[in-house]
Specification:
By secondary structure, the protein is an all-alpha fold. The chain is built from 28 helices and two strands. Strands 1-2 form a two-stranded parallel sheet.
C-alpha cells in the first residue's frame, strides 16, 4: 500500500489553521499537526517542523543552501562551496536532511546545475562537487524518479564522457549511476540506452591504473534485479551484453593485479554479477579467471586477508557452476588450495562456508571430484567445523550440502564419513538450525541412512 505524503505548504497550512482557527498556542499547534498526520499514516519525511512565530522553513540550513544556489549563475567558486556544504549537510542519513533536500527540489536543482556545466578550466571545479552532491541526494525510489524526470541519466553520462578520464570526475559520476540505478529498473534501462556499458569499458581499458571504485559499484547495481515493482527484470540480458562487449574480460584482467590491488574485492563482486550463464563463466576461465582466483586465494590465506578470501571464493563458486570449470579447478589442485584456505581461517565460519559452497558445487554429479575432495580433507573440514561452530547456521547448511554431494554417488566416501561420526553432527545441525533442516535431511538420506526423516 502506497504511503500518503504531504507537501511542506500543506503541513504549514495545517499548523497555521490550528493557531488561527482553533486558538492553539504555536507549539501546541505544531504538536497537534504532527500527531494527527502520524495517526493518519502520512509520511512526514522531509517536512521541516517550525513553531510559528519562532522560526520558518527558510531558516533551515538545507533550504538556505538551496535558495542561494537558485540565485547563482556562473559564480563557480560559491556554487562549488555550496554544493560541498549541501553534501555535508545531507551525508548523515539520521539527520533527515537528505529527505528535506529532495522534498524541496534538490535533485532537480542539482541536475539543472550539472546540465549547464561546460567542461573547461572555469567550470571544471564544480563538476565533482555537483556529482558528489547528486550521489548523496539520490537515496530512495522518489529521488531516483526525480533524477529520471530531470533528464539526470543523460546529463550525468554526458559529464562522464566529457570528463577526459579525470579520476575524481569518473568516481563521482559512476557513484551517481550506482545511486540512481539502485531499485529502479527504468533508470537502468535508460543508462543502457545511453551506452553506459561502452563508457564503462573505455574507462576499464584506459591507461591510468587509478582505481575508480564507484565504477565497480555501478556495474553491480546495473546488473542487480532489485526493483520489486517489475515482474521480469532485464538485467540478465544486460549482463550478457556486458560480457559480449568485453567487460567481463576487462574485469578478469583487472583481477590479475592480485591481492595487492585495492580494486580486487570490488572487481570480483562486479565480475560475479556478469557471470550469469555457463558461456560467460567459461569465457572468464578462458581469460585466466580461475588461475587468478586460485592465486589470490593462496595469497589471501598467507596474508590473513579474510575479506579478499571470502570475495574470491564467492566468485569462484559462481564460476564452478560450469561443468568444464569444475574440472579445471580440480586439475589445478583447487580443492587442496581451498582446504588449505579453510585451515588458515579455521576461526572464521564465513570463510569456511564459502569454501564448502565451492566444494559442494564441484562435487555435484561427479563421483571422481567427490573422491578428490575427500582425499584433500573435505570430510575432516566438515567434521571439525560443524563441531566448532554449531550455531553458525549457514555454515552448517553448506556443510550438509557438501556432505550430500560428496556422498551421494560414492559408497566409499559414505563409509569414511559415517565412520568419523558425521551422522550425529548432521542431526545436531538439523535439530538446532531451522535453515539446515532440508539440507540435513537430504544429507542423511544420501549417506544411506533409513531414518533420515527423524
Amino acid at each position: 500500500m502506497a504511503t500518503r505524503a504531504i507537501s511542506q505548504e500543506a503541513f504549514d497550512d495545517l499548523v497555521r489553521e490550528n493557531v488561527e482557527d482553533l486558538g492553539m498556542e504555536p507549539s501546541e499547534a505544531l504538536e497537534d499537526a504532527l500527531y494527527t498526520l502520524k495517526l493518519q499514516g502520512v509520511d512526514l519525511s522531509g517536512i521541516i517542523t517550525c513553531v510559528p512565530g519562532e522560526s520558518s522553513v527558510k531558516d533551515n540550513p538545507v533550504i538556505a543552501c538551496l535558495d542561494r544556489l537558485k540565485e547563482l549563475d556562473d559564480e563557480f567558486d560559491e556554487i562549488s562551496s555550496l554544493l560541498v556544504k549541501l553534501n555535508e549537510l545531507c551525508s548523515g542519513q539520521e539527520s533527515g536532511n537528505v529527505a528535506i533536500a529532495t522534498k524541496h527540489g534538490a535533485v532537480e536543482l542539482t541536475c539543472s546545475i550539472c546540465s549547464k556545466i561546460k567542461i573547461d578550466s572555469r567550470s571544471n571545479a564544480i563538476v565533482v562537487p555537483c556529482l558528489k552532491a547528486l550521489a548523496v541526494l539520490i537515496h530512495d525510489i522518489q529521488s531516483t524518479e526525480a533524477f529520471r524526470n530531470a533528464s539526470g541519466p543523460r546529463i550525468v553520462v554526458d559529464l562522464i564522457r566529457d570528463s577526459g578520464f579525470d579520476s575524481d570526475s569518473l568516481d563521482a559520476g559512476f557513484a551517481v549511476v550506482a545511486a540512481a540505478a539502485t531499485g529502479n529498473e527504468v533508470v537502468k534501462e535508460i543508462f543502457m540506452e545511453l551506452k553506459v556499458d561502452e563508457l564503462i569499458l573505455k574507462v576499464l581499458n584506459r591507461e591510468s591504473k587509478v582505481t575508480i571504485r564507484a565504477l565497480y559499484d555501478a556495474i553491480r547495481v546495473l546488473l542487480t534485479p532489485d526493483d520489486n515493482r517489475v515482474v521480469a527484470s532485464q538485467v540478465y540480458g544486460y549482463a550478457r551484453t556486458f560480457a559480449k562487449l568485453g567487460i567481463a574480460k576487462a574485469l578478469t584482467e583487472a583481477l590479475q593485479e592480485g591481492i595487492g590491488s585495492d580494486s580486487l574485492v570490488s572487481a570480483s563482486i562486479a565480475l560475479k554479477s556478469i557471470a550469469v550463464n555457463d558461456e560467460i563463466c567459461k569465457s572468464i576461465a578462458e581469460s585466466g579467471g580461475i588461475d587468478t582466483l586460485l592465486r589470490c586465494i593462496d595469497d589471501s590465506g598467507e596474508q590473513g586477508n579474510n575479506t579478499a578470501a571470502k570475495t574470491c571464493c564467492s566468485l569462484l563458486s559462481k564460476l564452478a557452476g560450469s561443468d568444464s570449470n569444475k574440472s579445471t579447478i580440480v586439475e589445478k589442485r583447487g580443492v587442496d588450495k581451498l582446504i588449505k584456505l579453510a585451515q588458515r581461517f579455521s576461526d572464521d565460519p564465513l570463510v569456511i562456508q564459502e569454501v564448502m559452497s565451492i566444494i559442494s558445487i564441484i562435487c555435484l554429479r561427479s563421483p571422481d571430484h567427490a573422491a578428490s575432495a575427500i582425499e584433500a580433507g573435505a570430510g575432516d573440514l566438515a567434521i571439525q567445523a560443524m563441531k566448532r561452530f554449531p550455531a553458525a547456521a549457514q555454515m552448517q547448511r553448506n556443510a550438509c550440502n557438501m556432505i550430500r554431494n560428496i556422498a551421494v554417488r560414492n559408497a566409499e566416501n559414505r563409509k569414511i564419513l559415517l565412520a568419523n561420526g558425521i551422522e550425529k553432527l548432521i542431526r545436531n545441525a538439523k535439530a538446532n538450525n531451522e535453515i539446515c533442516r532440508a539440507s540435513a535431511t537430504d544429507a542423511l538420506r544420501d549417506l544411506g541412512l533409513d531414518n533420515y526423516n527423524s
